[in-house]
Amino acid sequence: MCVSTHVDVDQPGTGGWRVLAPFRFREYRLLIGALSISIFAEGMWAVVMAMQVIALDNDPASLSLVATCLGTGLVAFVLVGGIAADRLNQRSIIIAVEAVNTAAVLTVATLSSLGLLRIWQMAVAAGALGIAAAFFFPAYSAMLPRILPADQLLAANGVEGVVRPVFQRAVGPAVAGVLVGVTFPALGAFTVAALFAVGLILLVATRPPKPVAARGDRERTHVLRDMRDGVRFMVRTPWLLWTVLFASVFVLVVLGPIEVLLPFIAQNRFADGARMYGFILAAFGIGSAIGALAVSSGRLPRRYLTVMMVMWGAGSLPLVIVGATSSFPLMALATFVVGVTDGAGSVIWGTLLQRRVPREMLGRVSSLDFFVSLAFMPVSFAIAGPLSKVVSMETIFVAAGVVPVLLAAIAIVAAKMPRDEIENPLR
């Protein structure tokens, strides 16, 4: 597949550590720099937002309202974001997104410092951030193949797979907690806004990728027809369809127990539950980063579909230990292993989308994948708590660990993945 690039070197070379190869391209350096700063800002914002809401109204319902607005904006617009990524200039989209992020958080910070901030204003800002995020991911995914050669997409996805868990799940929240703890929420919000502004400057400094070949009447097709074409492509592509189906049920079965029940398990089983819970999450984030780095440092596996599904399926088994053990080291090790397999599988998946989905359809397919996961996430959160009053947490975690194994096996067989990956080599 021919890839259009706009770079500052003639050839990236083949020597050195493979995961660092994309950094030879100027546009990628600017893009990943902006992405890293934005992810760090998002990690900080999760804590700043919570502390600011608590400072305004110490009521869990208020925080739930603000968080729901952010999630609703993301879910409601992610499919639109995919269509936009295929019809509009991706660079312009991500620049606009970063501008919205900067403006929304800066507004919150200013109102807070003046004593004028209200919960409804926080909710509006959160909704704006959610909508912006819905446009960013599809545009970013569709832009990478335009600035990097195909054989370096695995490494680029690996870099993101390292940056996201480290900055968003560990460093960002930790820094925000310390900053807000010794000062006040408004200063945290100003810091987040400044980080988004730096990301915006880096994005503006990028050069537009070379235009792809004209698609004639394709540019004038209806938006709904664009999305229908994306859905049709997904349904007619077995490896894609069955992976998305697997992911949707995986999210339903796994995320609720981890996000809703794990804090209570830590609180009930350890003397310092809050601190231990933070360390458990950190173990997952570190594992995810290591898994992503390990996969992206080498070549894409020849049996890439099978490896990916085994990673996600068998990698969930340690959740059985999480539900049963009262040993912190064992629980941390289990979540670390889950993180390693999650990070490794995610890097392979992102690379497959960019290499096997037609470029003119990549934004829509990426958004469909994202939408399916997001759609089941709140359902998983909603049922995990009530279910734990009927079924023991140990049983729920057994299901979370075992069901993905069965789902992965079904997906591999139903999509005939071993034959497909041999017929479509990517090495």
TrEMBL record:
Keyword Ligase part of the UniProt annotation: no
PROSITE patterns linked to this entry: MFS (PS50850)
UniProt xrefs under InterPro entries: Drug_antiport, MFS, MFS_dom, MFS_trans_sf
Annotated Major facilitator superfamily (MFS) profile domain residues: 22-419
Membrane-spanning residues: 30-55, 61-85, 92-113, 119-140, 186-205, 239-265, 277-297, 304-324, 330-353, 365-384, 396-415
Top-level taxon of origin: Bacteria
Subcellular location: Cell membrane
Alphabetized UniProt keyword annotations: Cell membrane, Membrane, Transmembrane, Transmembrane helix, Transport
Any GO MF annotation of the entry: transmembrane transporter activity
GO-annotated cellular components: plasma membrane
Main location: membrane
Membrane topology qualifier: Multi-pass membrane protein
Record-linked SUPFAM superfamilies: MFS general substrate transporter
Name this protein carries in UniProt: Tetracycline efflux MFS transporter Tet(V)
